[in-house]
Amino acid sequence: MEPGITKKYSQSEKIRIILDTDANNELDDQHAIAYMLFNESIFDVEGITINKTRNGGSIDDHYDEANRIVKLCGWHSRVELYKGSTGSFEQIKDQLNNPVYDGSNAVNFIISMAKKESNRKLVLMAIGKLTNIALALHKVPSISSKIRIVWLGSNYPDSGEYNQENDLSSLQYIIDCNVDFQIALVRYGEPSGTDAVRTSLSEIEKIMPGKGPSISTPVIGRNGGSFTNFGDYSVNLFQNIDYNDDPPSRALFDMAAVAIVKNPLWAKQQKIPKPELINGNWRERPNHPNHITLWENFDKEKIIDDFYSSMKNYVFDQSI
Asked: Which 8-state DSSP code applies to residue 274?
């Protein structure tokens, strides 16, 4: 397959995916959700689970923002959203035998979809903290062979990064599990991470107005205003965010992670022996017998071009 060309999938070949999001934290989650939903020819979307990180308000706020995007994309009757964890893996893991616990709706949904009979592995696309997924693995370890975790996070080998710091315990737990774990690296300020996959306010204002299906019932945005398509809401999100650069631009971290699941040729991957996370700092374990996968050096031009193409030429089966 030539670089930039995406394989066409039959229904039985589509990528089974659950997206786990802290949707109200920033503005990249919203664009990742829309990008996934507008690529229905590639993704078999089984659900969206929600987590709460330290920015963006309560779990209800994160849920409400994800729900806005689902409605604006015309998917409200087609995909379910499940509220997940507010606390950390360490705070919740000993409660998993209770009928209800922090995050139980999302955790139970992940488990049920992972156990579903299928010849396709379920991709757990994590674009927030890893708590919901770590809890699912802890509750039912046998699902590890049925899933592939792709996580947007980490400045590896450097310390820090928002998603990582929101639950260090869940990250180390997943690393120590016997599961296919892949990290789409962030690397703030570095050309090798998803931080380099940027678009500008002016570009969004030029390209995005009116993009996506038009819905009949308007949605009120988190910054106010009334919207009937995702493109107009995208413009509003970009107009209501703080910028530290001139001209203003913003990284679409989470969207880039979804993009490399769609087309693995849009980044480079390397397998490394499983490292260890100690007090938020990475320590290599070169003799570890098992590996994780790191994604880096993202093809910004192809990813951003495909994002805009997906917004314009979205696949949407209104008969479902």
From this structure: -
